[in-house]
Amino acid sequence: MNAPTPIRHLQVAPFLFFLGCSIFLIPDNVFAVGLPTITFGVEDAESPQQVSTALQVLFVLTILSVTPAIVLMTTCFTRIVIVLGFLRQAMGTQNMPPTQIILGLSLFLSFFIMSPTLNRMNETAFQPYINEEINQAEAFERAIIPMREFMFSQVNEESLALLADLTLDSEPYDQEDIPTMTLIPAFMLSELKRAFQMGFMIYIPFLVIDMIVASILMSMGMMMLPPVIISMPFKLLLFVLVDGWNLIVSSLVRSFGL
Question: How far is CA 36 from CA 32, 39, 40, in A?
């Protein structure tokens, strides 16, 4: 077969142009006749109760989406994961233990430390709400009380005074005058400060080992050999001899007053 000539392609062009113009010339009512109405399961609300239910569903979905952030901001997870991250960097073991292991250990330690607070929230707020003894608003008010008490027990006075000065118009007289939206960032700042303090204390023994190994290598004239390669086995040996994991975990748990 012979290949189509360019002339045949040019003959099709006027027909396509005429077809495109004819579509725009068709009246609008032609498309409206005989076409079924397409719905996607969304209908107009017939009562205020339907609107309220839809807003409640939207609110629940929003809460579920920000639950990880709430866990990070209002529990002991922040301090634990930062300290364990400092420990891994101080030992110089790159990705050992893996990030998933550190996050998993931090999460379970957080559940262990927060168990008294979570039990109080379950007894005073969740169970009465499930048994239809209280409504949603009262359940939320009861649930926030144990969480606020935990954050007040761990918050630093300087951080709390800073956030109160920035967000409140007048000086608070007691804990009831401090809103939760002011308490949460103050609690986060306190957790960051204590986590970095603990991380500094963890770094000191490993830093001493690095300095000793580097001094020995320089005295032997082995300046081309990286000191990290030689010091890492000694760091691991020191960590194993002092039972480092139990020491770190017990220090973290006791730092929350348990």
Answer: 9, 10, 13
